[in-house]
What we know:
This protein has 240 residues and is of the alpha/beta class. The chain folds into two domains: 7-40 and 207-238; 50-189, CATH 2.40.50. It is 34% helix and 26% strand. It contains four helices and nine strands; from the N terminus they run H-E-H-E-E-E-E-E-E-E-H-E-H. It has a five-stranded mixed β-barrel. It is elongated and about 85 Å long. It starts with 7 loop residues before the first helix and ends with a helix. The relative contact order is 0.20. The model has no long low-confidence stretch (mean pLDDT 85).
Amino acid sequence: MQALRPTLLISFAAVALIAIFLSLGFWQLQRAEERKAADAWAEERAQLSPVYLTHFPADSLEELSGRHVRVRGHYLDRQFLLDNQIHKKQVGYHVLTPFELANYEQVVLINRGWVRANSDRRQLPDVSISDTGEIQIEGLLYRSEVNPFTDSDFLMEGYGWPQVVQDLDYERLAERLSELSLIAATVRLSEDQPHGFVREWPAPPMSAEKHTGYAVQWFAMAFAVLVLLLIYFLRGMRTN
């Protein structure tokens, strides 16, 4: 009968699990609030009037992130294809085309949108651009962080054009545009602009709703452990 009583080790383990699950639940709630704030910030900035830029100041990229910008210059017929981009359950690429500013020795990558990948991945889609005359374009300035789990030795495939890339590592991309000064940001081409493809940009990988859902799961697990512990205590008391 004595063996049926909860031991100190079992009680400690259960309390530790409950504490961990609760902590994870509150952490997910905090992430949900942060995601809501970030989404509200992005929506507010996207509603602001476009900023006309003659160049991109390096110390102002963070301040300009999320804003619509207008730039004048011309496309270079060199295409990067950002791999593993999903649209309506189809795998494809985002087409990144260097855009050289008119009156400044600076280049920014223009994300012209999504194109479907061929079933034979060795056959790359034709995304060349024939119109390389001077134009003004508009889009949303976007900065992304390099995935730390991506091996930099395999970020790019081949040396001809177009080139398939696995991540937006601006330093590595700049190496392929060695004679040009590439800024560490991308402009997502607006829907009404020419020379674009499908422009339905991916949402953040974790929405506020998903964070809240995970929080509920962690709290449910904490409650389940508590119930099991109480049942264990009650069974031990009944056998005495």
